[in-house]
């Protein structure tokens, strides 16, 4: 071995873990990476240099993790998700490397304020809401648990839109999160993968065996961008690999050769459109062709990557299930199933049955919804045009599956039609959830109630056919980001009380339970809340010019705007309080002052949701300006709710609003974040609320509303919302006030669609639950006035909700679905 070669295998080492070590590297990054001097450096230069410096501390661990992984040949989880709602990276990296203090001190010695640089980071908003944030929590947990995982997804050039308000109405702006530089990503253009689309299939004779090949019409390149996923102080750094679409040379050349230079450049844009923008619909897919292109694009790249690059060159693919489990995050990546079949049958020339046996063991499917409109279906016409070979494979999978069903239930035609992966009406289409269920080794829902309803209501024939395939894993959230980083004051209080072990073993929060009865501790707990409210106030002032009244209950509803989540019910409550005060029925000094805080984005094409946003803003404007309710009721709605805002808003909350119609919210994860940060929940018997209430106890939770079987019965019997309006004067006066135009400068037309929807349709039973909700809110008011008892409940919420750590969720996946093992350092 030559001298040079020997050097090239020298271990990669991190910069010194000291203030001097950090400052030296930081200045080097500033000078040689950014090409500026300290005197000339902008805040952005400083931020980029800082990010690159912190990255260096993780690099050795990252390379070492990859080496260890190759050596151990352990089974990996490949998490396939169209969304990762990561949130800011800098703080998380500082926490993982335990560098916060060093960096703060080092920067201060150079006259730089760490907080200012933190604020410079634009969060990667590559997801819509719960599903994308869940994926981000899961990869954080797996890294922290030393479980091999590679996250696969799409590097959208534009993430979730930036929301602004114009006259109270939502206006969307493009989220160009990459425009100031992207120091956390590592592009590898040399490792690009080709993905095919369109064309036709043809049969050919392969030494006496008839085979099929796909003759595609066009290609794009998938360029991998790697991101570090650091475990919490355990020396492990997993990888998130997001794919970016680029035009292939061949694609360009064909057009270049025809002399159409400008068209060729335009064609490039066509290919690159695939990863251009995240679809902004949260659980209501629009069935757009480009979306199917996105889905196929990223799973084709990911399977190719795993088979060709992650596995050793001589790997026998028959052993694939011992090395990988592809976890399908909802149906978005399900086209991976026919893609793996295509690779095995067409490219590797396996028999169908042999390929199917392996494929079936390589996939598992998580369903995240119960809403029928959220279950993806792709028209056969579209799928066949874009992916003709995959459509054939899906047909074959369906034929074989239906043959099995027919064998078990001879003559049951109706059942066959119900269970077919191909739906015939309203147009011939592929039911992706059925395909995922047929192919997946396991199918899970995301909360106990959801998994039950999934079996009983959404996929009953399938759960009868394969009872053992179905399981539950209740969602969780990462305590590193949502407690430690979001709530440093509470974290310190907890660590002082029970030591630091809770951060990686959240069930240990239980040890705090006795402290709920300790007056001294309660006092400290309240001081933490007050501090967090102050911090929120500072942020909102800086960000939006909003000032919160001091010393009010903070009642928060943050989540995507969707009718089933019932922001309208919350608005009706506020309007009703306002109306009762203004009409003299309610003495404003008899209730504790409240701030109602909202955060919500509406899908740009979702009219009712956008109207609701406008209604909240208009009600807010009226209420906040009216001297008769001043001090008692305040409404705030900061625009552009995102992970970064959540991190300051949630720790300040007293009351968490989780008021979806029972049976509609699969799980919720915001509900968990609030409870863990010491807010009490007012909620329906829905999603993970059920489990939160079981754990914290009825007396520490404000339950209201119809339960799922009651909802079902009411709808079946014929629900008539107007009856509630007619019979309940409080409700009637609130609705009438909205209808009168009182919140729209007298214009009765502006909110007419909301009013008439409530009175004549009300799909989500807002009016049916109104009185129960108002009564529960009265109980909240009473409870809040007993400060000591309220604090006790808040502490018990924290102490009893350790179950909702995403670490626990990951152990459940490992145990019930993946059968993987952590890989520990030797
Ligand atoms: N919209 C559910 O509605 C759930 C998350 C994560 C959702 C939430 O109740 O907490 O998933 N469903 O499991 C979804 O995206 C496609 O379906 C969500 O985020």
Automatic annotation (TrEMBL):
<dbReference type="GO" id="GO:0030170">
    <property type="term" value="F:pyridoxal phosphate binding"/>
</dbReference>
<comment type="function">
    <text>Allosteric enzyme that catalyzes the rate-limiting step in glycogen catabolism, the phosphorolytic cleavage of glycogen to produce glucose-1-phosphate, and plays a central role in maintaining cellular and organismal glucose homeostasis.</text>
</comment>
<dbReference type="InterPro" id="IPR000811">
    <property type="entry name" value="Glyco_trans_35"/>
</dbReference>
<keyword id="KW-0808">Transferase</keyword>
<dbReference type="GO" id="GO:0008184">
    <property type="term" value="F:glycogen phosphorylase activity"/>
</dbReference>
<dbReference type="Pfam" id="PF00343">
    <property type="entry name" value="Phosphorylase"/>
</dbReference>
<protein>
    <recommendedName>
        <fullName>Alpha-1,4 glucan phosphorylase</fullName>
        <ecNumber>2.4.1.1</ecNumber>
    </recommendedName>
</protein>
<dbReference type="InterPro" id="IPR035090">
    <property type="entry name" value="Pyridoxal_P_attach_site"/>
</dbReference>
<keyword id="KW-0663">Pyridoxal phosphate</keyword>
<comment type="similarity">
    <text>Belongs to the glycogen phosphorylase family.</text>
</comment>
<keyword id="KW-0119">Carbohydrate metabolism</keyword>
<feature type="modified residue" description="N6-(pyridoxal phosphate)lysine">
    <location>
        <position position="673"/>
    </location>
</feature>
<dbReference type="GO" id="GO:0005737">
    <property type="term" value="C:cytoplasm"/>
</dbReference>
<dbReference type="InterPro" id="IPR011833">
    <property type="entry name" value="Glycg_phsphrylas"/>
</dbReference>
<dbReference type="GO" id="GO:0005980">
    <property type="term" value="P:glycogen catabolic process"/>
</dbReference>
<comment type="function">
    <text>Phosphorylase is an important allosteric enzyme in carbohydrate metabolism. Enzymes from different sources differ in their regulatory mechanisms and in their natural substrates. However, all known phosphorylases share catalytic and structural properties.</text>
</comment>
<keyword id="KW-0328">Glycosyltransferase</keyword>
């Amino acid at each position: 071995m030559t001298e040079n070669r020997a050097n090239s295998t020298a271990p990669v080492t991190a910069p010194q873990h000291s203030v001097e070590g950090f400052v030296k590297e930081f200045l080097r990054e500033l000078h040689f990476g950014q090409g500026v001097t300290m005197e000339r450096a902008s805040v952005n230069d400083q931020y980029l240099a800082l990010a690159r410096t912190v990255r260096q501390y993780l690099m050795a661990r990252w390379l070492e993790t990859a080496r260890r992984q190759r050596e151990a040949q352990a089974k990996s989880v490949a998490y396939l998700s169209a969304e990762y709602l990561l949130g800011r990276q800098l703080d998380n990296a500082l926490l993982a490397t335990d560098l916060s203090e060093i960096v703060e001190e080092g920067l201060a010695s150079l006259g730089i304020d760490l907080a200012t640089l933190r604020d410079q980071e634009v969060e990667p908003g590559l997801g819509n809401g719960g599903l994308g944030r869940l994926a981000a929590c899961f990869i954080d947990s797996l890294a922290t648990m030393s479980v091999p995982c590679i996250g696969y997804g799409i590097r959208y050039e534009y993430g979730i839109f930036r929301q602004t308000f114009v006259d109270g109405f939502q206006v969307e702006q493009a989220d160009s999160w990459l425009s100031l530089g992207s120091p956390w990503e590592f592009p590898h253009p040399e490792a690009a993968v080709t993905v095919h689309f369109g064309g036709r299939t043809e049969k050919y004779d392969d030494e006496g065996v008839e085979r099929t090949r796909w003759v595609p019409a066009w290609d794009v390149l998938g360029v991998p961008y790697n991101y570090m996923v650091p475990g919490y102080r355990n020396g492990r750094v997993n990888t998130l690999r997001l794919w970016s679409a680029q035009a292939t040379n061949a694609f360009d050349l064909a057009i270049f050769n025809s002399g159409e230079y400008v068209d060729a450049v335009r064609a490039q844009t066509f290919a690159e459109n695939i990863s251009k923008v995240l679809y902004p619909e949260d659980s209501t897919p629009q069935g757009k062709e480009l979306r199917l292109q996105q889905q196929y694009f990223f799973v084709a790249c990911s399977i190719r990557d795993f088979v060709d690059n992650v596995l050793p060159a001589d790997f026998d693919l028959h052993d694939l299930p011992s090395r990988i489990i592809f976890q399908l995050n909802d149906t978005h990546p399900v086209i991976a199933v026919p893609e793996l079949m295509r690779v095995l049958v067409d490219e590797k020339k396996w028999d169908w049955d042999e390929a199917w046996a392996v494929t079936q063991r390589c996939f598992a499917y998580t369903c995240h919804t119960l809403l029928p409109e959220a279950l993806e279906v792709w028209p056969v016409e579209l799928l066949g045009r874009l992916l003709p070979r995959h459509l054939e494979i899906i047909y074959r999978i369906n034929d074989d599956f239906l043959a099995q069903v027919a064998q078990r239930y001879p003559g049951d035609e109706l059942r066959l039609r119900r269970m077919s992966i191909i739906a015939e009406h309203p147009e011939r289409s592929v039911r992706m959830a059925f395909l995922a269920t047929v192919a997946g080794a396991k199918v899970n829902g995301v909360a106990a109630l959801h998994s039950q309803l999934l079996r009983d209501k959404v996929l009953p024939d399938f759960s009868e056919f394969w009872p053992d395939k179905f399981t539950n894993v209740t969602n969780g959230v990462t305590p590193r980001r949502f407690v430690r980083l979001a709530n440093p004051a509470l974290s310190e209080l907890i660590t002082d009380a029970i030591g630091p072990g809770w951060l990686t073993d959240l069930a240990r929060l239980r040890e705090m339970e006795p402290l709920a009865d300790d007056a001294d501790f309660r006092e400290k707990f309240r001081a933490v809340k007050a501090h967090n409210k102050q911090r929120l106030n500072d942020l909102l002032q800086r960000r939006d010019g909003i000032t919160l009244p001091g010393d009010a209950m903070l009642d928060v509803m943050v989540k995507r705007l969707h009718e089933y989540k019932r922001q309208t019910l919350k608005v009706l409550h506020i309007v009703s309080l306002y109306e009762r005060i203004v009409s003299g029925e309610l003495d404003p000094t008899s209730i504790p002052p409240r701030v109602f805080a909202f955060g919500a984005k509406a899908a740009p094409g979702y009219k009712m949701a956008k109207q609701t946003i406008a209604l909240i803003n208009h009600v807010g404007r009226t209420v906040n300006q009216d001297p008769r309710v001043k001090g008692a009721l305040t409404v705030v709605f900061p625009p552009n709710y995102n992970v970064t805002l959540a991190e300051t808003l949630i720790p300040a909350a007293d009351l968490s609003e989780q008021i979806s119609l029972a049976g509609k919210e699969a799980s919720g994860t915001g509900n968990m974040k609030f409870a863990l940060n010491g807010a009490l929940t007012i909620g329906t018997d829905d999603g993970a609320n059920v489990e939160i209430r079981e754990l914290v106890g009825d007396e520490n939770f404000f339950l209201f509303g119809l339960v799922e079987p009651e909802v079902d019965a009411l709808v079946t019997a014929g629900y008539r919302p107007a009856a509630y309006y007619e019979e309940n004067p409080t409700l009637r006066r609130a609705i009438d006030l909205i209808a009168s135009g009182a919140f729209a400068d007298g214009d009765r037309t502006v909110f007419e669609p909301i009013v008439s929807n409530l009175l004549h349709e009300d799909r989500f039973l807002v009016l049916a639950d109104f009185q129960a909700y108002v009564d529960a809110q009265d109980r909240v008011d009473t409870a809040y006035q007993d400060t000591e008892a309220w604090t006790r409940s808040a502490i018990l919420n924290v102490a009893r909700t350790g179950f909702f750590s995403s670490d626990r969720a990951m152990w459940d996946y490992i145990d019930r679905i993946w059968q993987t093992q952590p890989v520990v350092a030797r």
